[in-house]
Amino acid sequence: MKRIAVAIFFLLPGVLAIGATSAAGVAPRAVTPPTQPYLMSFHTCAPGAADCNNPANHIVQLAQSADGASWSMVPGWQSYKGSVPDVFRRGNTLYVISTSGLTKVDMTTGSTTTSSVTLSEGTFVDPSLAQLSDGRLILFFLPGIPGQDPAQCAAGEASCVRQIRSAVEVPGSDGTRFTVDAGARITETITGGAFSDPDIFFNGTEWVLYVSRGPSVHAYASASLQGSYAFRGVVSNNLGGVPAGLRLNDGTIATYVHTSLGGSTEIRRATSATGTSSIGGFVTALTGQSLGLGAHAESPGLALNVPGIDCSSCSTSSTTPTATTTAPSTSSGAVRIGASCSKAGATATSGKTKVVCKKSGKKLVWAKR
């Protein structure tokens, strides 16, 4: 499988110089808001493009599914230039982030807006979104390196250090500005190949952070969303890379990868108990041909189509500090009553029950409101 996902920074440094401030692309004016429980962002190749490995020829797509296995396009969606997208729903807004910026969809009217995305420092590629216990978005990313593919060592280097970082939404910015967290979520010394395409999700017990190692996927995990992630194992061994994970409504974990097959690329899927153990085989979940989108469907990003946690600290007047949380995000399902939480007063859902983070004895736990 050819490396695709982060080549935009190496091949098109001008785009990623903006991509760290991530300039917005041209988005559709309105779509039919998706109603099915699972959402997938992915990119395809622009019609007539001669080089589909060039991220300048990638376009962002949005699909929905009733079961996570069969997918259809969101009605009215109009693709636009962008690569390596991710999707996340908070409240009445759907966020689709990619190298070309942020598209927001109003889940009542279907109207869309586009904007750029900025970090407090540095540049980013390969974005993946989750949510803190107070409702703010958190962005996981591979830091950009001007003039170089950030996923690999520079020419002549026998080894190099690569990191996955995170950044927290600035209150009032509605997903357009992020403050980079101190430290790294993963730090690895690599001696060859690629280290890229992080994807964050909650598996019901701990946070899992996937990293693509070319056509393979490595899993790391942490009890804390903003903590240090420890290596858990190889999930896909040369069976597909550029991964995404999602906790399904039955509690199982669906792992998605993209795999090259001759002149085409498709998105494949497998399920497991935790999403961190070795998977022996994947089955086709989505192809570009099945949706009338050409021979390439790549770089899946997954989310549950549920409102998630109310953002009590998203106003411009908020001065709430960055919170570390063990609670799941929108893309990983509802919280569990009695499970630990980290910010008193934070709200969420447990099934159809509204819950709040309250003190019980000497610790904070999720309880019925």
Give an overview of the whole structure.
This protein is mainly beta and 369 residues long. The chain has two domains: 7-304, Tachylectin-2, Chain A; 334-368, no CATH class. 3% of the residues lie in helices and 43% in strands. The chain has two helices and 26 strands. It has helices at residues 7-11, 13-19; strands at 38-45, 58-65, 72-73, 80-81, 86-90, 93-98, 101-106, 112-115, 118-119, 124-131, 137-143, 160-169, 177-180, 186-190, 196-202, 207-213, 216-222, 230-236, 241-247, 253-261, 264-272, 283-287, 298-304, 347-350, 353-360, 363-368. Strands 9, 10, 11, 12, 13 and 14 form a six-stranded mixed beta sheet that branches. Strands 1, 2, 3, 4 and 23 form a five-stranded antiparallel beta sheet that branches. Strands 5-6-7-8 form a four-stranded antiparallel beta sheet, with no helix packed on it. The N and C termini lie far apart (49 Å). The model is unreliable at 1-25 and 317-334 (pLDDT under 50).
Global outline: globular
From the structure provided, what is the oligomeric state, counting identical versus distinct chains?
single chain
From N to C, what is the helix and strand string?
HHEEEEEEEEEEEEEEEEEEEEEEEEEE
CATH fold-level topology of the largest domain: Tachylectin-2, Chain A
Q: pLDDT average, as an integer?
A: 86
Structural class: mainly beta
- Number of alpha- plus pi-helical segments: 2
| Second rung of CATH, namely the architecture of the largest domain | 5 Propeller
Strand count, sense and barrel status of the largest sheet are:
6 strands, mixed
The total domain count is 2
Calculate the terminal CA-CA distance, rounded to whole Å: 49 Å
